[in-house]
């Protein structure tokens, strides 16, 4: 497990590259809320948008996750705890006014970037977020 990348994965890099190419600027691997010990893969602070790129195995993708046959109880509990933590993260950030976007690692980087760009621009022009 120590060899599993927790940041700067190929899907993350592809999406970040596409966003940067479009002129969007962001922070990477930062805590949206400083006191909350969870990081987002991509953070747009002024728009208050946190983007997570979830791995199919580690986050239980309904299309691609295949349960392990070895040590299955451990892995089933591990994935369940990851899903619970993801839900807690979504709820905490949302309650603080953040928009949380989650995408799967298998999704097309261009379509992911389209969606992110659309929502970031919409939140940037929103009167609620202009003063921040």
From TrEMBL:
Protein's organism: Prauserella oleivorans
Transmembrane segments: none
GO molecular function, one term: endonuclease activity
Family: Belongs to the Vsr family.
Entry-linked SUPFAM superfamilies: Restriction endonuclease-like
Keywords, alphabetical: DNA damage, DNA repair, Endonuclease, Hydrolase, Nuclease
Name listed for the protein in its UniProt record: Very short patch repair endonuclease
Alphabetized InterPro entries for the sequence: DNA_mismatch_endonuc_vsr (IPR004603), Restrct_endonuc-II-like (IPR011335)
């Amino acid at each position: 497990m120590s060899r599993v990348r927790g940041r700067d994965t190929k899907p993350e890099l592809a999406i970040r590259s596409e966003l940067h190419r479009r002129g969007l600027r962001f922070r990477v691997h930062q805590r949206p809320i400083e006191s909350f010990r969870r990081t987002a893969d991509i953070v747009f602070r002024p728009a208050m948008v946190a983007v997570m790129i979830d791995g199919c195995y580690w986050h239980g993708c309904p299309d691609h996750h295949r349960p392990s046959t070895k040590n299955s109880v451990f892995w089933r509990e591990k994935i369940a705890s990851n899903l619970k933590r993801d839900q807690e993260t979504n709820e905490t950030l949302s309650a603080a006014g953040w928009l949380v976007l989650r995408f799967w690692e298998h999704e097309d980087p261009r379509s992911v970037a389209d969606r992110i760009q659309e929502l970031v621009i919409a939140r940037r022009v929103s009167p609620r977020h202009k003063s921040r």
